[in-house]
Amino acid sequence: MTRKSRILGVGMYLPERSVPNTELEQIKSMETSDEWIQQRTGIQARHYVSTETGTDMAYHASKAAIERANLTADDIDFIIFATLSPDHYFPGNGCFLQDQLFGDRPVGALDVRNQCSGFLYSLTLADSLVKSGQYNTVLVVGAEVHSRGLDYTKKGRDVTVIFGDGAGAAIVGLAPDGHQGMLGHGLHSEGKYASALWLEYPNNAYDFFITHENLDAGLHYPKMQGRLVFKHATRRMVEVSNEVLTKTGKTVDDIDVVLFHQANLRINQMTASMLKVPEEKVVNTIQWTGNTTAATIPICMCEAVRQGKLKENDLVLLCGFGAGFTWGASLLYW
Ligand code: UT7
């Protein structure tokens, strides 16, 4: 019999401290305003960590997802951890999470570095691992600590105002008989745009890992060509959503719920309108979470469930775009 996979449970974690735009407004060196941020991005607030690490947040999100799936940690066969802001350069966060969740049980852990598309790349892989019979139950988690690595001056304000910290997790397991589970995915990358959204230093590509001059110049902070990213994001998200619909023999009208990556509310509104998806089918959280990169989609899943908008057997479209450039979409039955 053909094995099918589905999402069995989701969980999220946001640090306690919510940072409204008005707090960023108070940082004189940023020269930003609540009005600018809301108008251009839809963001009103984001959360910042206090003492939590990315792995700590992932642990809490994972525990919640395992519980929602009516499972215990013993049921998890494999970890896929998506993040662009790991606790350490190496080893990856997956290993730290293995220790926190499983201790002496040496569950395999893979780190995925696909930025804002990281969750979609990870979900696609988890689906394949379950369908192939390699594993029965895979934990997919995205977690980011952005707040410690942002440029709180005018130079970095475009990036700084959009990012927030947080984690989201999903348990991917075998779909029961009669449940159609995950239908299909589309993943893409276009590396010629790598420097349009990147963190250049430290690196192993140039003569020095990082120099004092690099640090003084703020080259260890993320840099983005915002307008270029915006333009590509809308076009590619529409394209890959249509690709996945065509591949699975579905139409936009069949979709019950759409969950986009949360980078900018305007991107999502424009993409929904280009796809001709009615606004009430889209659930956004960016207004109070900001952009939590690899965590946005599972956080949106939790919120959609909480709002009662995501119900058993709903057809769900997930879609995102980010640094790389990388982008992707997944279509699945809830
Ligand atoms: O998740 C990863 C993928 N990321 C994205 O998808 C983000 C895509 N890009 C965007 O969301 C938008 O481009 C931004 C929100 C980042 C920027 O909005 P924009 O409407 O594209 O603004 P802009 O970069 O063209 O800048 C317009 C003006 C500039 O001032 P001048 O040159 O017109 O005087 C900027 O310096 O706004 C200024 N500006 C700001 N002003 C106050 C840029 N950032 C800020 C800020 N506060 N935070």
Question: How does this model look, in words?
Answer:
With 334 residues, this protein is an alpha/beta fold. The protein has two domains: 5-174, Thiolase/Chalcone synthase (Peroxisomal Thiolase, Chain A, domain 1, 3-Layer(aba) Sandwich); 182-333, Thiolase/Chalcone synthase (Peroxisomal Thiolase, Chain A, domain 1), CATH 3.40.47. 33% of the residues lie in helices and 23% in strands. The protein is built from eleven helices and 13 strands. The chain has helices spanning 21-25, 34-41, 54-68, 93-102, 118-132, 157-160, 212-216, 226-248, 265-275, 286-289, 296-306; strands at 5-13, 17-20, 45-48, 78-82, 108-112, 137-144, 166-174, 182-189, 197-198, 223-224, 257-260, 315-322, 326-333. The strands form four sheets. It has a five-stranded mixed β-sheet, sandwiched between helices. It has a four-stranded mixed β-sheet with strand order 8-13-12-11, sandwiched between helices. Strand 4, helix 4 and strand 5 form a beta-alpha-beta unit. Helix 3 (54-68) crosses helix 4 and helix 8 (226-248) runs parallel beside helix 9. The protein is globular, with a radius of gyration of 19 Å. It starts with a strand and ends with a strand. The model has no long low-confidence stretch (mean pLDDT 97). The site of oxa(dethia)-CoA (UT7) has 20 residues, from helix 2, helix 6 and helix 8. Residues 32, 36-37, 40-41, 116, 157-158, 161-162, 226-227, 229-230, 233, 263-264, 267, 291, 322 line the site of oxa(dethia)-CoA (UT7).
